[in-house]
Amino acid sequence: MNIALAQINPVLGDFEYNLEEITQKVLEASKKGAELVIFSELATFGYMPSDLLERPDIVEKQILVIKKAIKKFPKDIAVLFGAVMPHQDLKERYYNSAVFVYESEIKSIFFKELLPNYDVFDEKRFFKKGELKENILNFRKKKFLISICEDLWFDESGVYENNPMDGIKEDLDYIINLSASPFTKNKLKTRKKILKNIALTQSATSIYVNQVGAQDELIFDGGSFAFDSKGKEVSQLSLFKTDLKMLDEKKEKISKDEYENIFNALVLGLRDYFKKTGFKKALLGLSGGIDSGLVLMLAKEALGAENVTGYALPGPYSSKLSMDLAKEISKNLGTHLEIFDVNPTYDVFLKSFDEKFGDQDFGLMHENLQARLRALTLMALSNKNGSLLLATSNKSELCVGYSTLYGDQCGALMPIGDLLKTEVFKLCEWYNRFKGSEVIPVEMIKRPPTAELRPNQKDEDSLPPYEELDQTVDKLITKKGRAKTDQEKWVLKRSFQSEFKRWQAAPILKISEHAFGRGRRMPLAHKTVIY
Amino acid sequence: MNIALAQINPVLGDFEYNLEEITQKVLEASKKGAELVIFSELATFGYMPSDLLERPDIVEKQILVIKKAIKKFPKDIAVLFGAVMPHQDLKERYYNSAVFVYESEIKSIFFKELLPNYDVFDEKRFFKKGELKENILNFRKKKFLISICEDLWFDESGVYENNPMDGIKEDLDYIINLSASPFTKNKLKTRKKILKNIALTQSATSIYVNQVGAQDELIFDGGSFAFDSKGKEVSQLSLFKTDLKMLDEKKEKISKDEYENIFNALVLGLRDYFKKTGFKKALLGLSGGIDSGLVLMLAKEALGAENVTGYALPGPYSSKLSMDLAKEISKNLGTHLEIFDVNPTYDVFLKSFDEKFGDQDFGLMHENLQARLRALTLMALSNKNGSLLLATSNKSELCVGYSTLYGDQCGALMPIGDLLKTEVFKLCEWYNRFKGSEVIPVEMIKRPPTAELRPNQKDEDSLPPYEELDQTVDKLITKKGRAKTDQEKWVLKRSFQSEFKRWQAAPILKISEHAFGRGRRMPLAHKTVIY
After folding, report:
1. Which pLDDT belongs to residue B325?
2. CA distance to partner chain A, nearest, from residue B192 (Å)
């Protein structure tokens, strides 16, 4: 059968836009001779809807737009797309559904069975479960099983008691999976393992269609694909871009380079956050360090150099090297650079503070003060120019609370908040290789990390070496492992003690299995459990 | 049967402490001649555990502490308490359980069936469901049904397909409900309606034991009670305090005054947040307005006047009246007052900013700058003194974004973030009546609300009158209703547009059915849906 895979970038809640995107892809598929075109999970609504589903009439509104749009579909093409469909009895309970349209009419609707309710996923909050074994579609003498995302992830998730695939007794020709699967490192491999395995065990063609585009903290990477009944990969759509391909069309080449994929994911995450919230311009503080250097580069790639301004904000302990590096990277990337001295404000504040409260020994207060004066300056510039501030904290810092709340943590988005410090370095090195040029100054990568908030400060004065710290963060946070050594226990304790900072952090673009952000729900007031 | 109801204030994850509290109450009940003593839901662990349940071995650790503690229970008293018990097969899946101990041994374990997974509740994230109809306990020739919290809330929640009570065919003597039910206005009435109704329909004594104490945003109000089989209230424990009473003991008098209960809830919320995070002292900015006045009063009541400092931070548009009122309320409450002028810092910052970026017309930037300079000052004082900053935003402001991110939104806790502005006024008036004195200056209640960030500014210049705004906020946010009028649509739009501010807000003490905070999960990047 001539089947097309269609990968769109929906805007959450923008039903007109999403149905227009779907319609354009249906017409394109039709021109290519498709008999069936398949879209991703909740393509009409956008994933993930969260509490938008609590707004009254929102699902009914979506259905009206769907019903109007499908009238424009050519009558001779079948269309399968994800949508939110209401529960027959319960108010504000829905099914995560796949809608089958043919001859410009809804012919059948299929319901998702396995509803992920862990990490970032809250599907049991609104969705009722269907039964996968009911999801058999007969079309043009072929038998299709229609599954939605998690339905095929029984083995990977490990949290369900029964595998819905066990109920499938039919002799299938096609196994379809409509998905909205967020990017994480190496996730594509896992998806392919599952779909290849199922193609082989069921002797059926397996087709996986994923959402593309970012939604707040989540980046959907697309990369839809298919396997034939012999387990041979027969289709591959683009990563990080909308796409449409016939099942037998020439495959897109997919990079195996982990850092290339992380780069593209973060650029998409940034770009879509700006586009979907209606902003064009970004600003950030440039410390001359590697974190803000990386964010500057990502912002330039996502928004264009003309839309990005870096601010060097020298304070009492800023070095000439830092200023030189801020200048150099701005020049290399073609982004604007402005320099604003926070010393006059710092001095006058401290003077009036000491007059009032007595002379203070230099301490944490003074360090935080510098970070907060910079944030205050950047927010003033954000207000002045209508630009969004980008926060530059990384996952290693966030874990141990090595960042200032209302200081360098400030921003509309935290693009590298799920990158370990060692990944920050590697991504910068990858970028320079990719560009064939030292766009990110080597000195910036080589110099020992420093916050420059007191004389001769180095991160490693207060933290373990990043190589060690990052292994620990990966083990304790990303992989949720045990703390055994004293150093691991120290890191775990710091992570609990700094939870209050992350409660108030900006959205973090998620690229790992488990990120700080909305998918991690740690309490603040509790007995710190160190093991 | 001689039954005791025991209401403890557990600390999340502090198993030793919680089991010690339980043991003390068991001994006390034993002395009073109790044959059975009943504790609240997850009394051993604390509610709600959230992602602490992802820490390895944490449940096993809890079980070790339980097993050790029950050995110390007197052998002739039966004890029923809530605990987290592991699923037999699945890793990191648990049952929300009630453990029955007799003769210093665990005799049986009962599992919760209805797992709330809406608003602040995420119980399907970790818990598997049991079956209520299995939860029959036979003890001393009496038949008990052991239910846990939501198990009896089928009608109220309205999101479940089947009522587990329908499966109960036994002739019951007692229906027990172990609960961890957060305070909301009038919630006690609802609880009693349910338990009275079930006592009558089952002709059994119904016993409800609730957690007391606060955990981050949630305040558990206790107020455990019982009805006899004729629907007569036979027991009532204290609100907002630990307690133990025999079933037939003299009932605690419960206030019907909504504002008295809100007051006690917020005081408990504040006190427990400090106690459970290990802090003693609070500070806040005193604007001379009613919001900071109310928070000052609550902090004084929760922490003692000696632990609370208010800072008046006059800026370019602060009035003499504001300063006078800040002084007056501090004097009335006996809290420390300090005055610190932010003008020198404001002036020097603006001077250097204008020199660099050109003269700026007065605008939003300047308003935010004042709020942020105050926050920076308060955070410096927080660092200096080891005090926690309290944020003073209310629900009406938060809804329409009438607060400054990284400005007056700053704080470790937002005690009145779930109070409408009109409720702020009423709570202050109640307090003055309660004290029989104008502790909160009448002028503070009477004066038109103003942020004093520009000359002659009044809140009602940019917002609808609070009487109207609050009705709309209650309708759209708390009750999740439709926006019909132009004003309602304007408020809804503002609420979506300011979601980014609330993403980074401090924890908000929840007192309404639906609060801003972790129980509301609205996306940031979406098409604003205005209906």
Report:
1. 98
2. 25
What pLDDT is stored for residue B359 in this prediction?
Answer: 83
The answer to whether B432 and B439 are in contact (CB under 8 A) is: yes
Q: Does the CA dihedral B153-B159-B164-B165 come out positive or negative?
A: positive
- DSSP-based three-state secondary structure for B72: coil
CATH topology of domain B263-460: Rossmann fold (3.40.50)
Distance in angstroms (rounded) separating the CA atoms of residues A263 and A249: 27
C-alpha distance from A170 to closest chain B C-alpha (Å): 29
Binned at pLDDT 50, 70 and 90, residue B87 comes out as: confident
Per domain, the residue ranges of chain A are 3-249, 263-461
Model confidence at B91: pLDDT above 80: no
What are A235-249's pLDDT values in tens digits?
999 999 999 999 999
Read off the pLDDT of each residue in B118-127 and give the average, rounded to a whole number.
96
β-partners of residue A235 are A226
Percent of chain A topping pLDDT 70: 100
Residue B122 CB contacts under 8 Å (≥ 6 apart), including other chains: A117, A122, A521, B48, B50
Q: What is the pLDDT of residue B530?
A: 83
Q: State whether CATH 3.60.110.10 applies to domain B3-254.
A: yes
| C-alpha neighbours within 13 Å on the C-beta side of residue B527 | 17
Interface predicted TM-score (ipTM): 0.96
Residues with Cβ within 8 Å of residue B298, at least 6 apart in sequence: B263, B266, B267, B270, B415, B416
A523 with B118: Cβ contact below 8 A: no
Nearest by Cα to B274 from B516, B503, B53, B507: B507
Quick one: tokens of B55?
């820490």
The mean pLDDT of B389-397, rounded to a whole number, is 98
Tell me the three state secondary structure of residue A7.
strand
Residue B116 has pLDDT above 80, yes or no: yes
Beta bridge partners of B136: B145
Q: Concatenate the DSSP letters of all residues of A310-326 into one string.
A: EEE---TT--HHHHHHH
Which segments of A463-514 does DSSP mark as H helices, in order? 466-473, 486-497, 499-503
Determine the residue of chain B that is closest to A12 in CA distance.
Answer: B526
> DSSP assignment of A249-315, as one string?
SPPPP----HHHHHHHHHHHHHHHHHHHHT---EEEE--SSHHHHHHHHHHHHHH-GGGEEEEE---
The domain defined by A263-461 folds into Rossmann fold (3.40.50)
pLDDT-based confidence at B360, cuts 50/70/90? confident
Whether A26 shows a pLDDT value over 90: the answer reads yes
The percentage of chain B sitting over the pLDDT mark of 70, rounded to a whole number, equals 100
Q: Report pTM.
A: 0.97
- How far is it, in rounded angstroms, from Cα A258 to Cα A275? 26
Quote the tokens at residue B444.
Answer: 């503070």
How far apart CA B82 and CA A496 sit, in angstroms, is: 25
Query: Is residue B443 scored above 80 in pLDDT?
Result: yes
- Superfamily of chain region A3-249: Carbon-nitrogen hydrolase (3.60.110.10)
Distance from the Cα of B195 to chain A's closest Cα (Å) equals 24
Disruptive mutation site among B218, B372, B385 for chain A (greatest number of A CBs within 10 Å): B372
How many whole angstroms separate alpha carbon A187 and alpha carbon A271? Answer: 21
The model's confidence at residue A102, banded by pLDDT at 50, 70 and 90, is very high
Residue for token pair 């602490």? B52
Q: Measuring CA to CA, which residue among A286, A288, A317, A318 is closest to residue A299?
A: A286
**Nearest 5°: CA angle at B28, between B22 and B29?**
90
**Mean pLDDT value across residues A354-361:** 90
d(C-alpha A334, C-alpha A340), whole Å: 19
**B3-254 against B263-460: fold identical:** no
CB neighbourhood size of A478 (10 A): 20
Q: Cβ–Cβ of A507/B521 closer than 8 Å? A: no
B300 has a pLDDT exceeding 80: yes
| Structure token pair of residue A136 | 């058999």
The residues of A that are catalytic are 41, 112, 149
